[in-house]
Amino acid sequence: MPSEFPKLGYGAANVGNLFRELTDDEAWAILEAAWDAGIRYYDTAPHYGLGLSERRLGAFLQTKPRDEFVLSTKAGRLLRSNPSPTGLDTANDFHVPDDLQRVWDFTEAGIRASLDESRERLGIEKIDLLYLHDPERNDLDLAIESAFPALEALRAEGQVDAVGVGSMVSEALARSVREADLDLIMVAGRYTLLEQPAAAEVLPACAARGTGVVAASVFNSGLLAQSEPRRDGRYEYGQLPDELWDRLVRIAAICRAHDVPLPAAAVQFPLQAGVVRSVVVGGSRPAQLVQNAEYAALDIPAELWAELAEEGLTDA
Fold this sequence. Notes:
The structure is a single chain. By secondary structure, this protein is α/β, with parallel strands linked by helices. The protein has a single domain (8-310), classed as NADP-dependent oxidoreductase domain (TIM Barrel, Alpha-Beta Barrel). It is built from ten helices and twelve strands. The protein has helices spanning 24-36, 52-61, 108-122, 140-156, 170-179, 202-209, 242-257, 262-268, 286-297, 302-310; strands spanning 8-11, 41-43, 70-75, 77-81, 100-104, 129-133, 162-167, 184-188, 212-216, 234-235, 238-239, 276-281. The chain has an eight-stranded parallel β-barrel, surrounded by five helices. It has a two-stranded antiparallel sheet with strand order 4-5. Helix 5 (170-179) links the parallel strand 7 (162-167) and strand 8. Helix 1 (24-36) packs parallel to helix 9 and helix 8 (262-268) packs across helix 9. The chain is globular, with a radius of gyration of 19 Å. The two termini are 30 Å apart. The relative contact order is 0.13.
């Protein structure tokens, strides 16, 4: 894994048929657009489309020089035969057949099996970074007792270069950083232009331990994906609270005053924190990846960040 981690990454949940079905050709076109736009970090997980994301991403990356990209996947959920399939995995938002099911396994054997099975689905032996996926949804105590030591052992053996945790729960992230020896953490939706709960404990813990941060879900369920926010936008699993809507309107107005597209500020904001090494964006259409890469490269004046902080809209 390069010492200079790519500043922009692609989160490959969409090519696992998140929210809607994509053909293999459509998924390939998305990945090709990401590569052509200069994106060199790719993140996936067994959870994404019950292995479909790993298979599609792996097939694509096999056509690229292995030393030119960083690849991460996740452990903690094994994919096993589903004895009672009902059709599609839409309960988890993936439009794939539910002939497999996710089985939590934080044992050392389970973590090792997860890595081996991800390698097989990807068709790529070398995985740079292995995250533990959403440990608080299963058992955070067990993760700290068993799963993280298993990850650390894989790193010590050279099976992976780096290990970490991915979660959207600040408390789980902070505790993981404090109690395990992690290289990187993926903070999903908890350190964005709109809200920064991770700034209270997670980022300071990372700074103290020398742990890097990858910021994901930086568009807050799409709220920050357009320069003109919409009041009816989805916020995680429900409606947008009035307080956040008011905050969003104020942020958008400041971006407009500095002639900066709101999505560009959303992509670049996390990187203003010293511990954040990369921002991972999704995308279900090639044009979205091209646009996100342009947003990441846009020159944003320091005065924008200063005004947002002065108005109490960001943590820094």
